[in-house]
Amino acid sequence: MKIGELARLSGLTPSRIRFYERIGLLKTVDRRPNGYRTYPRQAVMILGLITTAQRAGFTLDEIRTLLPPDLEHWDHATLMDALTRKIADIEALQARLAQSRMHLLRLIEDIQARPDDMDCAANAHRVLTNMLADHPKALDVTSDDIRLLDATDRRQSVSPGRRKKTASR
Amino acid sequence: MKIGELARLSGLTPSRIRFYERIGLLKTVDRRPNGYRTYPRQAVMILGLITTAQRAGFTLDEIRTLLPPDLEHWDHATLMDALTRKIADIEALQARLAQSRMHLLRLIEDIQARPDDMDCAANAHRVLTNMLADHPKALDVTSDDIRLLDATDRRQSVSPGRRKKTASR
DNA sequence: CCTAACGTTAAAGATAGCTTCAAGGTCAAG
DNA sequence: CTTGACCTTGAAGCTATCTTTAACGTTAGG
Fold first, then answer.
1. Is the pLDDT of residue A41 over 80?
2. Minimum-distance CB partner of A152 among B11, B42, B125
């Protein structure tokens, strides 16, 4: 089949298929005398496999190294290893997302927890200070820096669980 | 303070700070007679805020529209709305990651569930067919999701896996 | 006075994964 | 014979977020 038909069958665009060939993800295919690419039926499955792997989080580079020249002969060990590591990657991402989410929830709570006797500006400062104190390491901000920030306006900075031990630096 | 000191205090590079100014994320700062930028101490907090928001999954564009000219005067309603929507984004992504993970786990199981009387080639075909027959849209991850992933992932990844010779010939 | 470290700018490069464009060649139908 | 749909190529563009480079000015210290 020609590239247009393969595109229709696989749901990809012709340009994408040519792109995959260019980067070595698909092996070069046969050409007709006029230069047109000619694909075997199996190509549809290969493309489906590629998009499925992409959706699972594999990069094209990873897919290229995993894809065997022959769909029936996989490097079993390498494949299982890649799958296992990808699951671990996903779990790491999940952990970070969970943290991000909790961080945002805590931020919302903190903003709404404005004491009655505090005006918005002071509350803004309180929330900001709390938030930036939450991740000192990631921001490369030391405890000295925090104190420096506080010095700007040292009125009140009340929050539960303010600093956690400022690990290392 | 000059840009180098701000960079040290904030953990960002000078080029990144200049970049933020160029795209309008930071307002233009005062200059000394020699042309050097001069920052107020508050700038450290603004940069910390920006990187924190980035880690939470906000794009620089989003941050720019949310950041008030004055750190003490936020658009409370818009901010809360943005935070809430970002949490929803995260949760949607979490759901998709969970599905991706389950998909991979099922794939591993399926590969290992090769009947005794089936050779590897036939098993490969069986697994492939099962996989491609699975809910193809279930794991779809949009470019927006990728961005959110990047926000939590990129700056922490050790090496940005480089591609060899990006498609040219 | 010299040098190293810092500051400035505009422009280009890097990353992933494509799409789009320009400039053609091929082919089937009418 | 013309039209329009298809095919070809290489090169450039797109997105977001920076970094790097080049070429140059400034400043602090010895």
1. yes
2. B42
